[in-house]
Amino acid sequence: MGIEFLKRGKSCIYTTLFDIILDIKESWKKDSQDLLIIDEIGVQRVTENELIYITKIVDNRYSNLLPTILVGNVTQKEMASMIGERAMRRILEKCKVLVFSWKQNPNNPPRVD
Fold this sequence. Notes:
mainly alpha, Rossmann fold, two-stranded parallel ribbon, 5 helices
């Protein structure tokens, strides 16, 4: 089947489930940095799978006492809905919430997606 796709100018990757899982785990090595800053919280629509990944990242950093900064133009409640209640509970257990409530810069209006 893959050969037929290639003959038609389509792309095809042959891999195993094990290799896919290894690739995902390898991508999580970014998570082992001394400080992880995640920006643009609230810009995306979060799927159930993304919530699982976010929770895994937060849990890993929480367990290893690694600092994490989450940045977004959202309230704490909105942040919880974006990253998941479980991840938010972990963050609130060990972290400080900093709220910056300055006026919007007229030269940098808010984005409308």
